[in-house]
Design brief:
ATPase_V0-cplx_e1/e2_su_met, ion transport, V-type proton ATPase subunit, 64% helix
Length: 84
């Protein structure tokens, strides 16, 4: 299992357990249906929010803006060839 897949599987199982198993564990009461829907909606929304945040970090649209001097310092420290 790759490094990118492990968090996806782990969080999916975690929120799947909360949204899939916990609603069946709610005791019988007049508000049972509301509590079950709240658990399912909470799990779905939290999982979707986490997924969007996680995937946004995989390929960011905006990178840091560095001036030329900072880029040259970074290239020198990392051992890259400086091409002027």
């Amino acid at each position: 299992m790759g490094a990118d897949v492990a968090p996806l599987v782990g969080f999916t199982l975690f929120w799947g357990l909360i949204g899939g198993a916990l609603p069946f564990a709610v005791p019988k009461s007049p508000n049972r249906g509301i509590i079950q829907v709240a658990l399912i909606m909470t799990a779905a929304c939290c999982w979707l929010f986490w997924l969007c945040a996680y995937m946004a970090q995989m390929n960011p649209l905006i990178g840091p803006r560095l001036d030329r001097n900072h880029l040259l310092i970074i290239a020198r420290e990392w051992g890259n060839q400086i091409k002027d």
